[in-house]
Amino acid sequence: MALPCGVRVSTTKKWTDELDPEGEWLEVVKNPFNQDYAESVFCRLCRKWAEKIQTMRNYNEAFVKGTRGLSVKKDNVRKHKKSEMHTQAYNLEKKLVTKDQIDKSLLAWDFLNSGMQEKNRIRKLLQISYTMAKMEMAFSLFPSIAEIERRDGVDLGETYMNINGCKEFTVCIGETLEWELGEILSTAEFFSILIDGVTDVHAAEKQLIYILTVTESGQTKTSLLRLTDVENSSAENLKQTITKALENLGVTDMKHKLIGLLADGSSVSMEHGKGLAAILCSETPWLVSVHCISHQLELSMKDALERTYFDEFIRILSLIQGLYKKSPKRLRQLQALAMVLEEDMVKCDDHASGFRWLAHKQRAVEALYTLYPAIIDHLQSIVEDAGIKSSEKAMIKEAAQMMSSFSFVIHLLHFRYLLKCLASLSWTLQSERTDVIAVLTSLQDLEADLNHFLENPTPESAQLLELAEKYVALPATENARQVKEEVVYKSISLRHVSERAITTFKDTQKQTVEAVRGCIMERLGDLKTISTLNVCDLLDTQKWPEDREALMTFGNMTLKAFVEQFQQPLQFIGVQMEDILSEWTKLKLFWNTNLPQLANNELGKEIIASSNKYPNLIHVVKIMMCLPTSTSSLEPFFAAMQRVKSDWRNRLGSRVLEHLLRIKFEGPDVEYFDPEEALSRFFSKPRRPSVVPFGPQENPRKRKIHVSELEDQPSLQLEESKGNIVKWSIC
Fold this sequence. Notes:
By secondary structure, this protein is α+β, with helices and mostly antiparallel strands. It folds into 5 domains: 9-96, no CATH class; 188-297 and 631-653, Nucleotidyltransferase, domain 5 (2-Layer Sandwich); 298-528, no CATH class; 531-626, no CATH class; 689-731, no CATH class. Helix content is 56%, strand content 11%. The protein has 35 helices and 13 strands. Helix 19 (372-383) runs antiparallel to helix 20 (390-403), helix 22 (436-455) packs antiparallel against helix 25 and helix 33 (635-644) crosses helix 34. The radius of gyration is 36 Å and the shape is globular. 32% of the residues are buried.
C-alpha cells in the first residue's frame, strides 16, 4: 500500500497552538492507515452550529464537513478563523450575543434572525414549486401564483420570485428524490434495469432508464434513474450513462447487484453481440436479458392478424371513429338513438387503428358490438341526408352495407372473444405489480382459452351459424320469399347469407386462432423454457404437490440450477450456499402445515418477512421477484412527458424534465410533502452573496436603509448620505 501524502499531525499541532491555543474549535482527524498524518481538518463550532449559520451570505461548508487533501493548509485555517461564519458560530457558542445587545442594534438583530426568516420564506416557495410540478404547471405561472399568495399576507420576500427561481426549487426537490433513490439502491441487494424509448414533442428520441428493486416489505418498486437523449447513441454510451448515473447515487458495485435487463428490442439494447445486453452479459454472465413481453405480444398479434378479415375491422373502426370524432352533432344523434334502442353508449377508442395496445382494440370492438344496431341505423340516416358530400355518402353507404353483412357480424363475434382473451394478458402485463409468476400463469391461461375456443365457438356465434345454415338449407323458392326475414341479428336483417360465407368463416376461424396461438408461442413460448424465468414458478403455491413425500423433492433441482447461475452475486453478499436447499425444504414443510391457503403472490412477501427463519433463501427469493417482465408500467411516464414537454414548453432540458417526471410519479401527494430535505439541499448549494431584487449592492458589507429607519438607533453611525438613502455601519 502506498504511503499517504499530506500534512503530519505534528505540524497541525503547531497550528493549533498558534491559532487555537485553548483547543476550542480546531479538530484534526488522523489517517486510519497512518496515524502520523492528518486525513482532514474541521471546525467543531461551525459543525455544531451549522444549521444556524448556513443561511449566511458567505457560508462555506468546507470546515463543516472537513477539508481534505491539498486543502489542509495553515493559510486556509487562518482564513476560516477570521471568517464571518466562524465568528458567528463562536458567538453562539459563547453566548456573547444576548437579547439586550441585539435590541441595541438593528443590524445585529437582522443578522441573527434573518436566517430563520429566510428559511421560512424559501420553505413556502418550495411548497409552491412542488405543487406546480405535481400538477404539471408551467414555470411561467410561478410569479403570478406567488403574487396571489403575497396579496393574501404570505411573506415571500423579493428574491427567487421568477421563472428561474421556480426551476431552481424544482431541481432541488428532484435532486432530493433522486438522493432518496440512492439510499434505496445503497441498501438494495439486487436490482434490474428497464429501458424504453420515447419521442418528445420535437420528435427527438430519448431513452427512459428505470430501476426495479424489491423493498423491505417484499413489494417491487420501479424508480426513474435517468432520461437521456439518443442522439449519437450507442450501446457503449448507454452503458456509460447508466454507470455514471448509478455512481452519482453512490452505487459503485453495479456488477454485483445487477441481475436483469429489460428493453424494448431496439438494436442499441438487444442487438446480438453488439447491444447493451451483450456488453452487460460479458461483464455479468448471470444477467437475464428479456425483450419486453408486451412488445412481443403486440408484434405477434400483428403477424397473426395481418392480411385477415381483421384488416376490414380496423378500416371500419377507423372510419367510424373519424366520422363521430369530427362531428359532435352526429355523436349526439348516435347517443340519442342508443337511448331509444336501450343500448349503453360506449366511447369508441382513439387507438382503434395501429398496433399499440391490444386493450384498445378490444375496447373498440366491444363498443362496436354494443352499439351495432344504433350505428347501422344512424349510418343509413346519414346516407339519406342530402347535405353531405357525394364522396362521403358513398363511403358511409359502403360501410353500412358491409356492417350489415353476415360475414361482418359473424367475424365481429369471433374477434370479440379472441381479443377479450388477448386483452386479458395485455392488461396483466401493463399492471405495475406484474411479476414473472403472473406472466407465466397468464400465458398458460391464454393457451388453455385458445385451445378451448378452437374447438368450441362462443354460444352467440354458434346460434348465428345455426340460423344461417337453416336459412341456406331452405328451398330456393321459399328462400326467395323469406329473404331478409330469416337471419336477423339485433333487429338488423343480415345480407349475403350464403353457404360460401359460412364455409369461409369456419375455415378462417380455425386458421386465425391457430395463427394467433402459433405466433404467441413462437415469440413468448420460450419464456416457459428459460430456466431462469421458469424457476419463479417455484413461488406459485398452486403448483406445489399436496403429497408430503413429493413436496419434499419438489423444485430442488430447479432451485439448485438457479442458485448456481447467480452464485457470484449471492456469495458477494455472504450467502451460505449450502444452506439454501435445507431452508427451502423447511419452507415447504412450514407451508404444508401452516399456510396451505396462502396466495401465490404472497409467498415471496412471507419469506422476506420471515428473514430470521430463512436468512439465505430470502436473497434467492429477492432475485426471483426482481426479474423484469414488461415495460408497460412505464407508459404513464411517456404520456406525462408528452403533457409536460408540450409545444408551449419545448425548451425544457432533459435534466429538468427528468426532475419534473420524478416529482410527478415518485413524490408524495401535495398534502404530505415535507420540504425540509429540499430546504437543506438548497442552502447547502453555493449562492451569490448579496443577492437582492435590484442587483448587487455597491458594498456587500454595508446595507442601504431609509433615513426613517435610523431613528432611535444610537448604535448606528452615519457614514455617507445621498438624498434619502444613507450608508451606515455598526459603531
